[in-house]
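Before the break, one more example. Copy the sequence into your notebook; we will annotate it together after we see the structure.
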Amino acid sequence: MARVSSWILVLMVVAMAVKAERNINNTGKVYWSSAEDEAQDQTRTQPRDDDTAVADLDADGGFSSLEGMLQWAIGHSDPVQLKEKARDVERLSPADLNDRRLEIKQLMDELKTPSDAQLMQIAIDDLSNSSLSLEDRHRALEELLVLVEPIDNANDLNKLGGIAAVIRELNHGDVDTRKLAAWVLGTASQNNPVVQKQVLEHGALPKLVKMVKSSFVEEATKALFAVSALIRNNVGGQELFYVEDGHLVLQDIMSDASIDIRLRRKAVFLLGDLAECQLENMDKDELPFFSNRVFLKSVVDLTSSADLDLQEKALIALKNLLQLRTTEALVFKNFCGLDGALERLRQRLQGLMVDEDHRDYAVDVESIRNEVQQIFDRKLEKVATRLVVFGGNASSYMMRMQSLNNITYLETSGALETYTSTSSNALLSTSPSVPSGAASARLRARMVGAGIWGRRKTGGGGRVCMIACKSSIGGDGGGKKGVPSSNYVVPLDKSFSYTNSSCITRPLAEILRDLNKRIPDNIIQTPPENPSSTFIPWYHANRMLSFYAPGWCGEIRDVIFSDNGSVTVVYRVTVRGSDGEAHRESTGTVTPSDVDIVDPVAAAEQLAFVRACSRFGLGLYLYHED
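Here is what the structure looks like once it is written out:
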């Protein structure tokens, strides 16, 4: 009995001490103070000769030993009351002692410091309380914001029902609540594939993308932070981001100079991350918006910003974008004006280097700019050097990339196929050595403009293919000599501007629906050598495509010469609508056994062009491809 009484005495001392602390704090809540606070309290209230009890307190409010707890309890109790309580304990019956023991146990449980998981659960339960005040709701989200920073706590968030609870707050009417909820999701998802997957599965990304367009800057900024954290290094999240038109949101932010500079920095920084992730996953298909010319121009234009930080982030994004397979050097040059933008930035950075306050930063940015310039130059050289001489006795050739109005093309000299015009403004020149009689391998050039192809004989056995600028697409329908479609973009009218997408008024679905209409019978022809088959002449496909899909774009992707003498052309047709664009590719092959073929490359291109159109539905029922 005496032993039990002594234990209860200790517990009673602790209970009395806690009650005394509650009265001192006057908060009505349990309060654990640190060792330093306890020492200061002793100095202010009851000076003691022995402060060893305080030293036994851990930094988090715990006790290193039972003796330390006893000393602390005695030191915080009134000696007179303690003696009276001790006498009262001795007079308690066994049943009373047991009841008192249970009370003390309950009190000790309350005094335990809660774990992070318990604190998270409390905050989550508060969020589930619909009657919770706005202030308390903010406090719960702020507590979660701190608690989910450790990765282990973030991984527990979904187990506790926290992800669903926080996502619900994204729909709250209060802007600060939505901002905090997005902040929590972004913090928990950052560099955490487990939480990224969980949040994406709960469907948070569409809501966050919508929030990025908010007129409240803080809400938009935190939402973009959350989006970045969700899709960074997450291919599945990036694909969903594209489905939700997230790239258009980034484009709008980067293009609008009136938007808060912090949001624009985050947008272009995210783009740079996405492009870098694509480079690290070369086996994956690149997202289509990476090669969208309007999107790319919005990035290039940021290099003219007055904000150096924004310029630096834009350069980093461009460095990654230029290294992607699907981005075209000529688009960067002709449509985006990257060469001029880089030169203007170089001049501005030179001026900043004179200023001692900006010199170091300007040197760093110039280093990145120079790296972008080198990557851009190499990408342009690849376009130029992919043309290889064939036929005749030429051992070398000179090739020049020239510009006439909006048209860019390649010019070569010697006994070879030549793309030329009246302009003499040489922009690029190389002179590679080519073996005599070598086959022309791969030609890939992107033309910005509009035109039709013709051919004329030149001296020395060479041939020249000429592109003539026209205001409409057409040509000699009966002539089989000309290259039918080649690389060009069909203009809408003289006022058309690629920077003004409103010129294309019809949505993509309507255009595709019209392209699937049945072809008039009088257009369909039958080849003399095979009466059982039918086909659409390329010039009819050209005109119908221009009628139904004004502003379409044609591009030669590859010209491949095989050892058996056959020629294969890979051709891409891109159709643009007011809400997006789509492309289709196909191939056309001409063999040496084909009769009446004057130009095998042109003939193969005709086949590839018409087949690419059929993949949009234009006379698809007439073509059967394995």
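DSSP finds 25 helices and ten strands in the chain. Residues 169 and 528 are 70 Å apart (CA to CA). Try to locate both features in your own notes.
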